[in-house]
Amino acid sequence: MAARLPILFAALAFALCGCGSSEQKGGRTRPPPLVTATKVQLRDVPVEARAPVDLRPLAVADIGSKTLGYLDAVLVDRGDRVRRGQLLAVVRPSDLPDQLAAARSQLAQTQATLSLARANAERARSLAPSGVMSAQDLQQAESALGASEATSSAVQSQIAALATRLGETRITSPIDGVVWQRRLDPGALVGQPTGGVILTVAQVETLRMFVAVNEHQAGGVRVGQTAYVTVDALAGKSFEGKVVRVSPGFDPGTRTLDAEVRIPNGEGLLRAGMYGRGAVVIDRHPHVPVVPASAVLVSNGRSYTFVVKGDAVARRPIEIGVDGGNWMEVARGLAEGDEVVTAGSEGLNDGAKVRVVRDVDPYTGDKLAPGDATKLDKG
Question: C-alpha dihedral over 122, 123, 128, 132, to 10 degrees?
Fold first, then answer.
């Protein structure tokens, strides 16, 4: 930025005054240099833990078939919104219908056997008291009845299991969401032992991101804090969310702590997989001086700025707090109402005479609205 300022400032100076030769001509002396300046603003400055992030779905479900068979139909495609319980695909089972028919035939046989065993047991109970039927014959009849009942129950359970498996050939969505991927087409063999994911459904009405917080800032991160994310695809927009959980320990490789943030996405402007910049607001500095980043100069590791005093400037050492990118918090050295040079400070000395243009964008020459020079960008 420092390399661009002289060229842009020269263009601004030419546009504003239409003159300004730096050489003495016809006895005229060199005019004072032209600078732009703006007043120091007092703002509430957010202290943020920032990190690059990628947006992820709130939940992702890979959907396959438990039943061996051929995929008969896929009723949705990528990008379709689905509801929980909605039919997504149908599988044509290989042998389940035949197994179910055989089990039902077996059930008919066992029910006939059960009816006979029940009749024999009732006859034995009625004849045993008169001595016509021995106690041993009664026990055998009771035992045959018990065996027939057990066989009938087993076959009924088998039929129920086969019916459940047959019902699983109708594949439904386990969650509300959107079809993230479609991997197979009709005709593919699915189910055990071949496996294979047919569809992937993701919840994207709420997205989540993980902000890596360093050890210095980790103590200020708590559940419920406000967070923001910005993405290159939606320049100028900031999306707000909340911290929902904080990792209990640091990653030994990066020495950072993950803060999980959930971002409402009801309008669908954000997309899972976007890469952006996340920030968790861990503190706020109320009512502190803020200046444009172009007003701050660094020399020998120390920061300073030039303050306008009438038609001259004074070199003022300052202490920088939060660095907001295009603005900076001044922790010490400036007060509200001080007027600082935002462009044209290269080559200035303490006490130098200047010509001041106020509240002008040093890059374009456009007039700035009050506060624009130190606008706080979230995220």
Answer: 180
Say what the pLDDT of residue 373 is: 56
pLDDT at residue 369 in the model: 64
Residues 6+ apart with CB under 8 A from 318: 296, 303, 304, 305, 330, 331, 332, 333, 334
Angle at 333 between CA 329 and CA 337, to 5 degrees: 80
Helix (H, G, I), strand (E, B) or coil at 35: strand
Secondary structure letter of residue 353 according to DSSP:
B
Q: Which helix (H) or strand (E) holds 218?
A: helix 215-218
Q: What is the CATH code for 61-94+174-201?
A: 2.40.50.100
Best CATH choice for the domain 49-59+203-284 from the list 2.20.25.530, 2.40.30.170, 3.40.640.10, 3.50.50.60: 2.40.30.170
| Rounded average pLDDT per 10-residue block, the chain, 379 residues | 45 45 56 87 88 94 87 93 94 72 78 83 78 76 84 82 72 93 90 80 95 90 93 89 94 92 93 92 90 89 91 91 85 90 86 84 67 53
Whether residue 239 contacts residue 229, with contact meaning beta carbons closer than 8 Å, is answered with yes
Task: Report how far residue 190's alpha carbon sits from residue 70's, in angstroms, rounded to the nearest whole number.
Answer: 6
The confidence score (pLDDT) of residue 47 equals 86
Give the pLDDT of residue 375. Answer: 57
Please tell me the distance from the alpha carbon of residue 224 to that of residue 378, in angstroms, as a whole number. Answer: 17
For residue 157, give the amino acid letter: S
Give whole-number Cα distances, 249 to 55, 210, 226, 253, 254, in Å: 22, 14, 21, 12, 12
**Class of residue 124 by CB neighbours under 10 A (exposed 0-12, middle 13-18, buried 19+):** buried
Q: Distance of alpha carbon 358 from its chain centroid, rounded?
A: 42
Quote helix, strand, coil % in the chain, to nearest 5. 25, 40, 35
